[in-house]
Amino acid sequence: MSAQEAPKRLRPGDDDPLLEDEDEGSGEEASGRSIRIKLPGTRTLAILGVITTVAVWSAMLFWLATSLSSLDGSLQALRDEFVVQQSVPAELPAEELATPAPAVAEDTPEPAAEATPEPTPEPELLFGKPIVTQGADLWDCRDFLTWEQAMMVYQANLPDDPNLIDFDGNGIPCESLRTES
Q: What global pTM score does this model have?
């Protein structure tokens, strides 16, 4: 490159805020000067990052507060509508108001009261497990202390043996617990 083709160099005083004029010596003329490019420091970048983060979080919190306020207003309107519907009796259509109720003969027997279903009894438990397993395999021979307990569970689940405690299918569960006396 020739001297005529050299790129234009920036000099101090060219109105560029990123340039800084440094003197290398005391009292030297322009030959002793150098130009240093000033970049924002890490401290400046950190402060800008904190400010940006605070601004973003503030905007998100404002949006959240606005959304919750709107939701609260909607819920209040629904609650008010529900209270109004519960307190005001439903209006009957005009046809039902004009039609008189059918007369009930005095000798007509009263309808029988509906039988209330009896509550389902709690299942009988043995060692915290239900005796009737309803097809589930819940018991093993080592769960029983006596042969009588094994027989009780076996008989409660007949005609099936979902627990497989009668290994050979002879009708005697957990034969290892049975003692001949």
A: 0.34
